Amino acid sequence: MRLRTIVILSVFVAFWLVGGMTSMAKGKEFVVVIDAGHGGRDPGAVGRVAQEKNINLNVALALGNLISANCPDVKVLYTRKSDVFVSLERRARIANNANADLFISIHTNALPKGKIARGAETYTLGMARADDNLEVAKRENSVILVEENYEERYAGFNPNSAESYIIFELMQDKYMEQSVSFAKMIQGEFKTTAKRLDKGVHQAGFLVLRATSMPSVLVELGYISTPDEEKYLNSKAGVAALSKSLYNAFEAYKERQTDVKDASQPVVREDRPKQASAKKNVVRKEAVQVPVFKVQILTSDKKLAVKSPKLKGVEADCYQEGGLYKYTYGETTDYNKIVKTRKEIGAKFKDAFIVAFCNGQKMNVQEAITLFKKNK
Ligand SMILES: [Zn+2]
């Protein structure tokens, strides 16, 4: 009897100790994920002598080294440390699995031939309010086209179609404030420490940022398509100045976050579970509903005749949204089938993408797929 009590008690104490120690360690360690954009078979933007993937990696490693050398309480993780291909989805997963506190994606900008620009800019997730920003997001997201099964993985997202980006308008990013505040710090440092032209903080729909569940930014260091910028980005001095700028911003951000946490810990703790449970309720409500998938092939500001040449002989359905007539093809509750339909119709409408409805209302495709998988 007595021995059993002691055993049970010691097991209990052991669990309590381990649990306590884990949460203590968690409270101390700040995890940052540094994401060097592109890699391997995906070079990113290509200059006269340099490739984006290498510039990104050089700056990412230099930044990581600075943090490791100066911040013993920070754990640095990389999405890649060498010239290898990593999917956007995996990059986000690395950060989410590590329960990271901050995600920094490093990229290099480019413009079409004949266009010249200089300077650095930082993005957070959101709806692009300017065409230039949308173009940057399109270029960075088009990486998924070289991934296998990208249609299924990214829910029919077409990186080259402006319409696909509408989903970003509806997204509520609860880390927006922290992300923007960090982005501003980065731009400030680029200007003062690296003496770069400040191209400001912007919002656009980046898939890699959408999938991360922590404050996150995407940095465009400069323009590889502008010869003097390329030279700078490809130089040791350039890499040193850019990584130092990012490091300074990181240090300032982390300090501020720690201050905020210390000052308002009970508030932060109470807020988070509430948000989480509110989200859960929404999902539960939708779980009994069955989403219907269709392929959107065309948008028009006028209603088209059934025989309109624009429909290319396809028997299409129409729904109205935002004052526009949107034409769809196919209809099924089976997501796998609609992926096939999209592929087939893609021969006639190359920008076609998958949309989802529930009880006649349009819904988020990502959520619809989640429901489809759950209902299966
Ligand atoms: Zn890039």
Low-confidence stretches: 11-26, 264-287
What's the rounded overall pLDDT mean? 83
Q: How many structural domains does the protein architecture include?
A: 2
Percent of residues in helices:
40-55%
Strand content: 15-25%
Assign the CATH architecture of the largest domain. 3-Layer(aba) Sandwich
C-alpha geometry: globular
CATH topology (fold) name of the largest domain: Aminopeptidase
CATH class descriptor of the largest domain: Alpha Beta
Distance between the termini: 50 Å
How many individual β-strands? 11
Helix and strand element order: HEHEHEEHHHHEHEHHEEEHEEH
**Main sheet overview:** 6 strands, mixed
Q: What class do helices, strands and sheet pairing give? A: alpha/beta
The total of helices stands at 12
| Largest sheet strand order | 2-1-3-6-4-5
Q: Roughly how many Å is the radius of gyration?
A: 24 Å
The ligands found in this model are: zinc ion
CATH-assigned homologous superfamily of the largest domain: Zn-dependent exopeptidases
